[in-house]
Design brief:
By secondary structure, this protein is an alpha/beta fold. The chain folds into two domains: 158 residues, 3-Layer(aba) Sandwich (Rossmann fold); 151 residues, Dihydrodipicolinate Reductase, domain 2, CATH 3.30.360. Helix 1 packs across helix 10 and helix 4 runs parallel beside helix 5.
Length: 334
């Protein structure tokens, strides 16, 4: 017997939130019942036109989440508003209290037990009490640098080390992403923004913790390295022109070592306008050794929307509580 369509409430109508809604319209088994965004200019607009469809959806943007949650029966909330747990926590409290499952693109929530343990504990208890599931996912973190390597490790009898490389040509990504990696800044501006915090890609540490916990590695430390990628010639995206000597993007590396100082996890992320030879690569040192390569790389914006939508049915079937993508993977375990 076919299940009733999942009734979805969308929170956040930025580029990813809009792409998720377009993806929902292409799939069976989902119905958008409400959309919420705090920007006053969006209030009352039909969501269909707003997200780039050529027709109305009959759903108008609301700017009052409490009223939506009180008046609109729904099964799952998609939350695409912030990368930081602290910024998304108030909204999650309301959504969970209303009895909705949650799928969110909040990068820090992909594995919050190390960086935000109090919030993780609170959300887990609240979700269990309400009988709902909460999951953060996306292309990275949430798939290519954590969930996918775990899935690949299911072919192994033994795993000693995991290395993941994600090399992206950022010219094909959304403008907020290009800004987040510093495209167009001078090297000095890059360093100032980096020192101020809240800059760069969020999620490598979360992916490393997820991998280590799921694989049974006991890490003593995770070292992170962040550096600008400078343009050697003028490069451009549809929105940004970067002259030689300016910042084209960012390189971030997270290395996890165990008590003996042995490197167990290495995650390398590089995204830049005009990046040569983009790819996604997973290497596992183990029995057997494995390597998986995606030549050209995976477009993060397209894949994130797809992952969010594909996760919704799994969330409806999942146990209550705060979950990570590792809870859904079959993988090797020490």
């Amino acid at each position: 017997m076919a299940q009733a369509p999942l009734r979805v409430v969308s929170f956040g109508l930025g580029p990813i939130g809009c792409r998720v809604i377009r993806c929902l319209q292409e799939r069976r088994g989902f119905v958008l019942v409400a959309a919420v965004d705090p920007q006053p200019v969006l209030a009352g607009q039909d969501v269909g036109r707003l997200v780039g469809l050529d027709h109305d959806l009959g759903v108008r943007v609301a700017d009052n989440p409490e009223q939506v949650l009180l008046r609109t029966p729904a099964d799952v909330a998609v939350v695409c508003t912030s990368s930081r747990v602290a910024e998304i926590l108030p909204a999650l409290r309301e959504i969970i209290s209303a009895g909705l499952n949650v799928v969110t693109t909040c990068e820090e929530l992909a594995y919050p037990w190390a960086s935000a343990p109090e919030a993780a504990h609170e959300l887990d208890l609240a979700a269990r009490a309400s009988g709902v599931s909460v999951l953060a996912t996306g292309v990275n973190p949430g798939y290519l640098m954590d969930f996918f390597p775990l899935t690949v490790s299911g072919l192994c009898q033994q795993v000693e080390r995991v290395q993941v490389e994600r090399i992206q040509d950022a010219s094909a990504r959304r403008l907020p992403f290009q800004r987040k990696i510093g495209a167009g800044l001078s090297p000095a501006e890059f360093e100032r923004k980096l020192a101020a915090g809240g800059f760069g890609h969020v999620g490598l540490r979360e992916s490393a913790h997820m991998l280590a916990t799921a694989l049974g590695f006991s890490l003593k430390q995770i070292e992170e390295i962040v550096a600008p990628v400078l343009a050697t010639k003028t490069v451009r995206s549809p929105e940004v022109v970067v002259k030689a000597g300016l910042v084209a993007g960012i390189r971030q590396v997270a290395v996890g070592r165990d008590e003996a100082g042995v490197e167990r996890i290495r995650l390398e992320f590089q995204a830049a306008i005009g990046q040569a030879e983009p790819c996604d690569r997973v290497r596992i040192d183990g029995v057997p050794p494995l390597e998986v390569l995606f030549p050209g790389g995976v477009n993060g914006d397209v894949a994130t929307a797809a992952i969010v939508v594909n996760a919704m049915p799994a969330i409806r079937r999942a146990p209550a509580g705060l979950l990570t993508m590792a809870d859904l993977a079959l993988h090797w375990r020490a």
